[in-house]
Amino acid sequence: MSEGGSEKAPDDPLGSAYQALKGDDPLIQNVKQHIWRRLWVRDNVEAWITSTDLPALSKYLHRALPQGDVELLEEIKMVAEKFSNSPHAFFIIGLVNERLERCHSMNVDLVNQQSTVTSSSFASSEVLKMRQTAAKTRENYNGQLCAGVKRFGGDWLAGTPDLPGETTLLPPKTHCQLEVWMQPERPDGAWSDKLLIETGREEDWVNFSFEVDCATLHFPYGRKSLRFHRRKKSDSVIFDFVTPKNKGEHLLYVHAFQDPALVKSLLVILKVAAPGHGIAPH
């Protein structure tokens, strides 16, 4: 949406309010800018959630989401939460929570300088509440959220140096297990992403829970938990699934929680080979 705003819809009170504000008075311009930011969030979050090109969207969101604007990040999160049944929404919320964590831990300027005094004061008080809550419920961690695939009860199929997850083809019609674990350093070959929490308690033993979300493959519902020493590799939690009979790619999210907050979403792309093929990097 451009600064000038698009033509308002009849049932769009926010757009109507934006169009109704006229004049060069600084207060009016300030309010108009605030409404424009809300319109930008609403329109873009809805577009992100309905996107069909998830790998490209994932890379784009890492660049598009603001780094230090807590007010805008909170607005994005609030809109995304309205689409709670969408895997895309969970991914956006996880990225926003990660950016908020970074803002808080670095003690950056937590409120955009163009905000009004009232909204800035409100945002600052909300940030303080969030930091106090996080300090009570979170445990600090600096490491990697990791995933790989094994044959049910057997050997690795993807996620090792010899069978890298991003390029290895899984065999069709095979009972598999998605293994999820945490470790301090980035693993070679596995799907992984950095997970950093710095606003919680300093504990040697940390607790996380995990869910898997996929629109095209069936994974068991519910969360599975791990408790482990933060400086060591954790045990694994396992999610059973069966690869389909046809060749294709299947996108899934591994959501990591420190209750009650979603702290990371790892995007995993499972590549299934045609019948008679598989277990071959390409």
List keywords for this structure.
disordered N terminus, single chain, Immunoglobulin-like, 2 domains, alpha+beta, 5-stranded mixed β-sheet, 5-stranded antiparallel β-sheet, about 280 residues, 10 strands
Structure, explained:
- The chain has 282 residues and is of the alpha+beta class.
- It has two domains: 13-137, no CATH class; 141-272, Immunoglobulin-like.
- Helices cover 34% and strands 27% of the residues.
- It has helices spanning 13-20, 26-49, 54-64, 70-80, 87-106, 117-137; strands at residues 141-151, 156-158, 169-170, 175-183, 191-197, 205-214, 224-229, 237-242, 248-258, 261-272.
- Strands 1, 2, 4, 5 and 8 form a five-stranded antiparallel β-sheet that branches.
- The longest helix is centred in the first third of the chain and has 24 residues, at 26-49.
- The radius of gyration is 22 Å and the shape is globular.
- The model is unreliable at 1-9 and 108-124 (pLDDT under 50).
